[in-house]
Write a structure and sequence with these properties.
The chain is an alpha/beta fold. The protein has 19 helices and 27 strands. The structure holds FE2/S2 (inorganic) cluster (FES).
């Protein structure tokens, strides 16, 4: 009988293949995640693998994304080929088998610890014949609670629990809800989870609610990447594929469930010690996580199914195995501005600041917040996922091998790749650094046009000059033997940075201020942590401002989720935030297009 088997190089891992599925689907079954920005439609060209043995015929879409030489060398698009028999394939290091650089930390303002979930140890008076009351009333009298909420199942278990525990119980209260009743004194064991569901990455942070200390953290790539790189492709997947929403939801909740177990193991605690979890993310990620159809976020007027905070018990209400404790998602501000930005606002103290601050969160899209405690403006700029490496020929997210820094000296253009590995692509910070260098070297002009190899500025070293080559009709600047930046890539970055810069300019205009009035420019997100401020201002992604005013604040969404867990006043502000901030919709702003065009140049 014919065996259908694939061997992955360089790891040597073997697995059986199903010849009725595409190679991409087979690899995903094995948890080898290739970049698949278009979700397997054959349009992004990212899911490249090289056949060492058993190459199938190249598909039509493959031929559009691969050169004749590459096809001859065995390169194919994994989403466009089905294979049988014995094959051997080389899978690039960006396949998720490689170590991942995921941002699990950030800067935040200091706050007094006052967690939203509170535990009380109660030594109740046993029921008496003279005055029997409801078992639950014993708890309410002791805690002084009036109106309250409780899960009926906890009431079912209460009579036996009280008597078995000799009326000594610990009650967990969140707001006006009794969320847990345990036998004995468990007040020392109170932990919370701050969870960031990003489009590209997932982070679970286990926090001690007494000390505020982070006990453990678990990070991984969002397994939903296999359904598309950005929120629009995920929304499309929900709309177009039968069972798409369920599939995507399970992929994220199963991933989170494993990560929660990992964090508990590392932190030396049981899941039952967790009092609550706060989950932040953009509205599409939040909808999918909650099992809500995100389709209407993708069409005018981009309305989310919920925008207020939502609290629920996952295993009891929605059949998701991430725990029995309450899970809360802070509010969204619109269909594109989610609880991750709300969390960013509270973690950076924008609503407490006298000074005007600018927060730019660059992920698969850009959210911009400008203002202080008097007035706060927020907008979403459709920058697209270029800074996450999508739609860039050699683009990739910040995995091992991604070029994250580029600089030059008299002799050459130099770079650093994550993990000091061989360069296999460019992540956002590397892309911005490379463009800034090409501008400074005169290889790119201010309009974004790449010079001709024959007419490069005098004074450039021969080494640098040789790196600019014409391949067919395309000009490419080669950073290494395999990684280049093309004229088309430069255009993609120009459009992305123009959207962000135009958004910032319009918010400043609306507020009647200039960039010099902004005390601090904070760049959030993984990209923000690694991008060089001088390069970001050089390409005009952020306005020209004194560099000492620019700071990276890391994963501000996760920091905000921690603050939501640990500070009741911050939680109250976050829950009312929809009434405080002013949303500005750029897509209906008459000045936006004009501003966008004027920001396209690098000058
Ligand atoms: S081309 Fe294969 S996933 Fe996009």
């Amino acid at each position: 009988m014919k065996t259908n088997k694939a061997t992955i190089r360089p790891s040597g891992r073997e697995f059986p293949i199903d010849p009725t599925l595409t190679l991409l689907a087979n690899l995903q079954k094995q948890e080898v995640f290739l970049e698949s920005v278009c979700g397997g439609k054959g349009t992004c060209g990212k899911c490249r693998v090289r056949f060492i043995k058993g190459a199938p015929a190249a598909s039509k879409s493959g031929s559009r994304h691969l050169t004749a030489k590459e096809i001859e060398e065995g390169w194919r698009l994994a989403c466009q080929v089905k294979v049988g028999g014995e094959v051997e394939i080389f899978v690039p290091p960006s396949s998720g088998e490689a170590p991942v650089k995921i941002l699990a930390e950030g800067r935040s303002i200091e706050k007094q610890i006052e967690p939203g979930a509170k535990k009380y140890f109660l030594q109740l008076q046993p029921q008496k014949l003279e005055r029997p009351v409801g078992d639950i009333d014993l708890i309410l009298e002791e805690t002084g609670m009036g109106d309250f909420g409780i899960d009926l199942r906890d009431v079912h278990a209460l009579p036996r629990l009280l008597r078995d525990a000799d009326y000594r119980v610990t009650v967990t209260v969140i707001g006006d809800e009794i969320t847990k009743i345990e036998a004995g004194d468990t007040t020392r064991k109170s932990f919370g989870l701050a969870i960031d569901v990003g489009t590209s990455t997932l982070v679970v942070s286990l926090i001690d609610l007494h000390s505020g200390e982070q006990k453990a953290v678990s990070v991984r790539l969002n397994p939903q990447r296999e359904f598309g790189a950005d929120v629009i492709s995920r929304i499309q997947y929900c709309r177009e594929k039968e069972g798409g929403l369920v599939k995507m939801r399970l992929s994220v909740t199963n991933g989170l469930s494993e990560m929660i177990d990992e964090a508990c193991r590392k932190g030396g605690i049981e899941r039952t010690d967790i009092s609550e979890a706060i989950v932040v993310g953009n509205p599409t990620m939040q909808h999918i996580f909650l099992g809500l159809d995100p389709s209407y976020i993708g069409e005018l007027p981009y309305a989310p199914a919920i925008s207020r905070k939502a609290r629920f018990r996952p295993t009891k209400g929605l059949g998701v195995d991430i725990g029995t404790y309450p899970v809360q998602t802070p509010p969204n501000l619109s269909g594109f501005i989610g609880s991750d930005i709300v969390a960013g606002i509270i973690s950076q103290g924008l609503l407490e600041s006298e000074e005007i601050q600018l927060l730019v969160d660059l992920g698969t899209n850009a959210e911009i917040v400008l203002g202080n405690k008097e007035r706060l403006l927020v907008c979403n700029a459709a920058a697209g996922p270029a800074f996450e490496g999508a739609r860039i020929a050699c683009g990739m997210i910040g995995l091992q091998g991604a070029i994250d820094r580029v600089w030059f000296d008299e002799e050459d253009v130099r770079f650093h790749a994550i993990g000091d590995a061989r360069a296999s692509g460019l992540c956002g910070s590397g892309l911005v650094g490379a463009i800034a260098c090409l501008l400074d070297l005169g290889i790119l002009d201010e309009s974004g046009k790449m010079g001709d190899p024959e007419t490069l500025p005098e004074g450039l070293s021969e080494k640098i000059k040789k790196k600019l080559r014409k391949e067919g009709s395309e000009k490419r600047f080669w950073l290494s033997h395999t990684v280049y930046i093309s004229q088309k890539d430069v255009r993609e970055v120009q459009a992305a940075k123009a959207a962000v810069a135009a958004g910032i300019e319009i918010l400043m205009r609306k507020m009647g201020i200039e960039i010099d009035d902004v005390a601090r420019v904070m760049i959030a997100g993984a990209f923000g942590s690694y991008v060089n401020a001088a390069s970001a201002t050089r390409i005009g992604l952020i306005p020209k401002v004194r560099l000492d005013r620019v700071m990276s604040v890391g994963n501000s969404a996760l920091e905000g989720a921690k603050m939501y867990l640990l500070s009741s006043p911050s939680r109250e502000v976050a829950d009312r935030i929809g009434d405080i901030v002013e949303l500005h919709e750029l897509s209906v702003d008459k000045e936006f297009m004009e501003e966008f065009i004027s920001q396209m140049a690098f000058g």
